[in-house]
Amino acid sequence: MDDWMARNGHKVVPRDRLRALSVRSDLRGWAQTLSHVGAICGTTAAIILVPANMPALLIPVLMVHGILINCLYAGQHELSHWTAFKTKALNDWVGQVFGFATLNPFYTDRWAHFAHHRATHDPLLDSELIGMKPYTSWSYFLDLIAVGFWRRRIRMIVRTAFAQGLEGDYWLTDEQRNAVILEARIYVALWVAIAVASIAFRSWIAVEFWIGPLLLTKWFHQLQNTGEHTGLDHDSDTFRNTRTLKGPAVMRWLVWNMSYHTAHHCFPGVPFHRLAELHGDIVANLGRPVPTLGYIEAQREIFATLRRRAREAAQAA
Q1: How many Cα atoms occupy the beta-carbon half-sphere of 297 within 13 Å?
Q2: Using an 8 Å Cβ cutoff, are 120 and 265 in contact?
Q3: What is the mean pLDDT of each run of 10 residues along the chain (317 residues)?
Q4: pLDDT value for 8
Q5: Which residues of 51-70 are buried (b: 16+ CB within 10 A; e: fewer)?
Q6: CA distances from 250 to 68, 71, 88, 247, 259 (A)
Q7: What is the Cα–Cα distance from 31 to 243, expressed in whole angstroms?
Q8: CA torsion, ordered 21, 23, 25, 31, to nearest 10 deg
Q9: Which residues form a coiled coil (predicted)?
Q10: C or N: which end of the chain has fewer Cβ atoms within 10 Å?
Q11: 8 A C-beta contact, residue 279 and residue 272
């Protein structure tokens, strides 16, 4: 597997313990997948059943529906590591479905994500940082509410479909480069087909049940995405450059335990359902705390860090 483990990781979690924690389970994978997809089916039914004379009820239902769809990316991320299911092919098949549902091409994301793991917080090599200007408070806010995120995402898929914008993707082999271009072209072709069918049948189903809720509630999933690394120093030590996020049990379920992000980044071969145990081992054995904050606390710290860095840059100018 093209994964990476924290430097000196075996000094924190012994090999035998790590081997035990790394056992995959089709049963646990199906339980998480079906509960998440089942919840989306439930909110879909709720949207249909809301009485026409009570449109205000649609707002909270659509919000929950969109949040559930967006958080499928947490599952896609786990599937990218081949750790959601023991059966490797299941990870790929389900991952492709989740990828299309979240407008996030599966193989494109997998290969970029491995580069992110190998070079976390390296501005020159981390796939999540390459080409990104340092955040200001305003640009970060636009990303947090997903305006910047969706602009980059849609532009990336369309440009890739035209075989453009891949020059800096050093992590791709020639074969993988051809695969991501084909993947983007399939996405664009399916978008066009859905749009044409919607117009032909004069239907808003795709917008009401998928695209609208997905685009408008991405901000919720951004609390997880942006909270994982933003604002931390460019330190090569994975126990320092990745943030664990505290939240209620429902949040841990929604994000497939990616709230234990330090544990995941240090030992990415451990499946989602064992990350709580792994986190406990790290805390007990590391000898120092790992970056840990609640979701809202993390955002406060990020904005405070950005303001501090802006002041320091202004004073140095």
Answers
A1: 9
A2: yes
A3: 68 94 97 98 96 87 98 98 97 98 97 94 91 93 96 97 95 97 98 97 96 97 96 89 96 98 96 97 94 98 96 88
A4: 79
A5: eeeeeeebeebbebbbbbbb
A6: 11, 12, 27, 8, 11
A7: 27
A8: 10
A9: none
A10: C
A11: no
Answer whether 281's CB lies under 8 Å from 57's CB: no
DSSP E strand stretches across the chain: 244-246, 292-294
Helical axes 106-118 vs 88-101, angle rounded to 10°: 110
The identity of residue 316, as a single letter, is: A
Cα separation, 195 vs 17, whole angstroms: 51
Helices vs strands, H then E, count in the chain: 18, 2
Contact 254, 239 (CB under 8 A): no
pTM score of the predicted model: 0.94
In the prediction, which pLDDT does 236 show? 85
